[in-house]
Design brief:
Layout (H helix, E strand, L loop, with lengths): L1 E9 L3 E10 L2 E6 L11 E3 L4 E5 L1 E6 L19 H6 L2 E6 L10 H13 L3 E6 L13 H7 L3 E9 L9 H18 L4 E6 L7 H9 L7 E4 L5 H12 L4 E4 L4 H5 L5 H10 L7 E4 L5 E5 L5 E6 L4 H11 L5 H6 L3 H7 L15 E5 L5 E6 L2 E3 L1
Parallel strand pairs: 1-4, 1-5, 6-7, 7-8, 8-9, 9-10, 10-11, 12-13
Antiparallel strand pairs: 1-2, 2-3, 5-16, 14-15, 16-17, 17-18
Helix pairs in contact: 3-4, 4-5, 8-9
The protein binds zinc ion.
The site of zinc ion (ZN) has 3 residues, from loops.
Length: 376
Amino acid sequence: MKLFKQANVYAPEHIGVKDVLISGGKIIAIKDKIGSLDESLVEFIDTEGKILVPGFVDSLVHITGGGGEGGYATRTPEMEIQDAILGGVTTVIGVLGTDSITRSLENLLAKSHALEEQGISVYCYTGSYHFPVVTITGSVTKDIMMIEKFIGIGEVAISDHRSSQLNAQELSRLASEARIGGMLSGKKGVVSIHVGDESEELSLLHQVVEQSDIPITQFYPTHINRNRSLLNAGIEFAKQGGFIDFTTSTTEQILAQGEVCAAKALAECLNAGITINQLTMSSDGNASLPVFDLQGNLIDLQVGRVTSLHQSMVKAVLQYGVSIEDALTSITKSPANILGLNHKGRIQVNRDADLNLLSEDNLNVCSVYAKGEILT
Ligand code: ZN
């Protein structure tokens, strides 16, 4: 057992100073004061000068690496466990991307098991950018029902020169397959959507929602801060009840080309009246961050970082005036709810003991606990 003594707790709502007791990988008690514990059985954790917050949920990481848009030499490396530890991330969603030929779902699953063995929690999407989709069992529904780690499909690319240019009917079919797989296995069957910078923006999603019975909440579009116009389209999508996700990995060059940094996008959406339950940030860790010129030639390529998730949360608070509660919610409770991870994203009795101690003054990550164990 571990006892976080008199911790200032953001659950992510601020619930004040509490004793938080964890055991067997779970949070087992949260009380004003927990007394009379056998001291030989309990490790007491000092929380002086720190705040206790949920472990971060990063809803999009290319854990087996990604990219290659500039040829084989530009394939990006796998995620290392150290990236998660440095950034306070205790749950990641692993995805394939543009390359589903040399990166496979089998490899994605193997890497997710490896990261689990190293201490964090990992879930995955079946499929990739492309249509027809890659699967393990031959069916999206079957993958989600039969393979525990698969909680949805994605990131399916739309409005992007690297997408399969799929139409509304094809996307409806995919979404219903994911939805049914989710319904039958107690998962959300999320359809993660990679949105590129073509002018169609989110129109395909609107078409699917209008033409079918698939609810708007089945979709989880990401990279919505890619440019000003897409951010505006995202705000409209959210006003209709949809979820939107902002990408925290970026470069100076990408920002100079018009990307709105994730922290700023979060603040703007909150100011526009979108509820924090609909807003999330993800790192797009280990993705390639290609920059193309107007002719479509690749002119720069960097690698996404998982640690940018935490940095953007801090930036949202310190630079853009977002409350600590809202900034934390966008990388804990909101993604956990959207993904249907009921045991993640909150400091609450019976949830997993995924916890971060952050320094009170600058929100730096001091220590990370995943399923009750400290990660080092
Ligand atoms: Zn993407």
